[in-house]
Amino acid sequence: AQKVTQAQTEISVVEKEDVTLDCVYETRDTTYYLFWYKQPPSGELVFLIRRNSFDEQNEISGRYSWNFQKSTSSFNFTITASQVVDSAVYFCALPISGNTPLVFGKGTRLSVIA
Amino acid sequence: ETGVTQSPTHLIKTRGQQVTLRCSSQSGHNTVSWYQQALGQGPQFIFQYYREEENGRGNFPPRFSGLQFPNYSSELNVNALELDDSALYLCASSFLGEKLFFGSGTQLSVL
Asked: How far apart, in whole angstroms, are the C-alpha atoms of residue A41 and residue A44?
């Protein structure tokens, strides 16, 4: 069965620090997608990234970067030079099949303190 | 381009009542799914609709039911409400199962 584990429940950092959010997954599929979503206090889940299991290259988008390692079934997310606006709950997710629907981890609550 | 909108934003019901939550999909999206998010947990998949037919369902009892309309808007109905149904209900739309776009949710409290 599909499963996503986010072992870090809450992380607190001081502004401008780098922070890495961990995600470990289990899947029965040989090819699959992985996702990260952000949930600010407003409640809406905001899409951050989708990665295909074929592509193990690390990806960087501004202050965000993702480290996908198929060998360890991990898809970690790093925020460089964190800002107060990054404070949110971050979810890693894996499709039940295809692209959707998604199985989510329990989330990591990130607090960035000024 | 309008995003996913949900109504109402908050709702209070009592045990045994029935509730209907509504969702308007993002323009151009033909697939809608619903998720339940209990406090401190990740969203859990309830069901998904494509072209007005349910095409996937999570581990939720039959008292959770839904509809998708020709304009791709959707409803989630919950009968015989239980205390454990208290949660944030999120609607998400997508085009042909591509990445999901979520609404801000309906916070349901069952007393």
From this structure: 8
